[in-house]
Amino acid sequence: RWPSSMRVTILATCALNQWALDFEGNLARVKESIAQAKAKGARYRVGPELELPGYGCEDHFLELDTIEHSWECLSQLLAGDDTDDIVCDIGMPVIHGGVRYNCRVFVLNREILLIRPKLCLANDGNYRETRWFTAWQHPKKVEKFRLPLLVSDVTNQTHVPFGDAALEFIDGSLGSETCEELFTPNAPHIQLALSGVEVISNGSGSHHQLRKLNQRVELIQSATAKGGGVYLYANQRGCDGGRMYYDGCACIAVNGEIVAQGEQFAVQEVEVVTATVDLDTVVGFRGAFQSMSVQAAASEKQPLIEVGFLLCVPDPLGAAVSKPVSVRYHTPEEEIAMGPACWLWDYLRRSGASGYLLPLSGGADSSSTAALVGSMCQLATKAAAAGDECALADIRRIAQLDDNAPVPSAKEFAARVLTTVYLGSENSSNETRSRSKALADEVGSSHLDVKIDTVVAAIIAFFVAITRRTPKFKVDGGSNVENLALQNIQARVRMILSFVLAQLMPWVNGRNGFFLVLGSANVDEGLRGYMTKYDCSSADINPIGGISKADLRSFLRWGAQNLGFPTLASVEEAPPTAELEPIREDHVQTDEEDMGMTYEELGVYGRLRKITRLGPVEMYKRLLHEWKDRGTPAEIAAKVKKFFFFYAANRHKMTTLTPSYHAENYSPEDNRFDLRPFLYNVRWPWQFRKIDELAEKAMKDR
Questions:
Q1: Which of 173, 361, 520, 667 is catalytic?
Q2: Around Cβ 24, how many Cβ atoms within 10 Å?
Q3: Would residue 118 show up in a list of annotated catalytic residues for this protein?
Q4: How many helices (H) and strands (E) does the chain have?
Q5: Is 32 a residue of the active site?
Q6: Which among 323, 532, 554, 584 is most buried, taking Cβ atoms within 10 Å?
Q7: pLDDT digits 0-9 by tens, 566-594
Q8: Could you read off the pLDDT of 463-492 as tens digits, one per residue?
Q9: Active-site residue flag, 40
Q10: Among residues 14, 120, 179, 251, which one is catalytic?
């Protein structure tokens, strides 16, 4: 026996690239993570939330198949030697007493120790957990759960504990909370700490959002900064079949300090993060906090399930305790370069497509999308060159290379999986055409330069033939209706031609499969509705649909220096323009002039509308103070009313919005995140009258 004062253990957490309903693949990744944890000497391993079926099953959780297949996976895991001499914490759905719960299942040595249901469910933003699960309603209560026969036959157990409890080992204790519970005011880790539980784990399914990681890490640190303890955080990492990218960053904290941290973005499917910790430092930390001792003495203790297992290593003197490390944070520009790129990689390799097709106009949005695909190629080929066999196999399969082909360069890979096309018209400029070609060369895409004028002319000729009326652009004397219709013809022709090329270009090049069409409308344009319905914003997926124009411009400047695509700098410097109207000496079309508002103003409107939850009147009140140096109360009122008019008039476009990478909390995405009507009274009579009254009063008070 070692000295009783030495209680050192090795603990493992992980980030897994799970995929909804991919039970075979999900189980394989769970097993691989356990194997890696055991190889590193870990005595405990925690995995992501609902890791067996995948977190993003959504309404498939309502199907008994999903529950049954999860038990089948667990049965296979328990039938082998995977859980020998290591406590494994597995995420899966469980039905108990006719109620479906989101659970953690603790297993050891081919037996189930405890099933712990989630106490607090995520039910805002992108999350709808109460649609599929029920929160456990009995804090600190444990019941008996009858195991399914296929599991009983493996474990020789008929019943196991089910409820809000922790595990007490011979030499330590361990409890858990799940994802959302970390973010709640009265989080379970508080009661666990007051009950003396030393190790607390969190199996999570948390998505990427720009500038969000620091909030998560600070909560993880604060979970043990006041109450002491060891905190393990596990997460999914990747696209599991929807709009969100789960951004990993598995980490371990001890007494408020991070001692191990995994990657936030990576194409790697399995990452295991371990730390060697001294449990006695937890006892010492808590013992020095007398106020906590008083609260702990008075608190109702957490039920403990006794387990005859040594959580600590047999040779503590030979184990170097992990030291605190500096937390690694990416800049927003780096997050944009890596998050959507990894999402594109997962979507491509799991969709069965042969690559992407991108209408590349030479403007900021499509150039950003091209750069993201270029970043995807860099990340995938770098991982393959570093020995990631899964990444190499996917590269060879998607690019249709020989089985023994060497790892291609990023540009060589891009030439196989990205086709860009400049769909120019008589209204296009030489500047955008040259930028499009230069960027395609830098990224390495297969590039086409196409004229759409003949197709546009044919449609106009068709209209003239049936109506005997010839529409004109506004600069040529036409009305607003004519002007808009002529622009929309060009925009929609580009969408149709993009899908034709995506379907046929692999065949033209003698390859199998199809391309996915990439859209490139940013979040601000979606909010304002500054897009043609069923134009090039209508695509298969859109990696920048949740990113603001301001962030994209910063990314372009960063990408010119850091991705090896210098043309991005000249793209960022150019004024945004749709190039759908004829260019004249006295008229050049620009986006902000068309919209009647700046992109910076759109970002303000978007955040106040969604994040701060302000309607027209309250938004005007807020901006009356914040923008007092920008204009008169009447001018600010006109700006707010103009935004809400166009937002309401164009909200119907959000119902057909291309599925986009979720990156911003003010996204107007109608399908999952921003649930609103799409038929408004665009005049807002009551609200606008109130704004006018406030503006009139403010003008008099000046």
A1: 361
A2: 11
A3: yes
A4: 24, 20
A5: no
A6: 532
A7: 999 999 999 877 788 887 666 666 777 88
A8: 999 999 999 999 899 999 999 999 999 999
A9: no
A10: 179
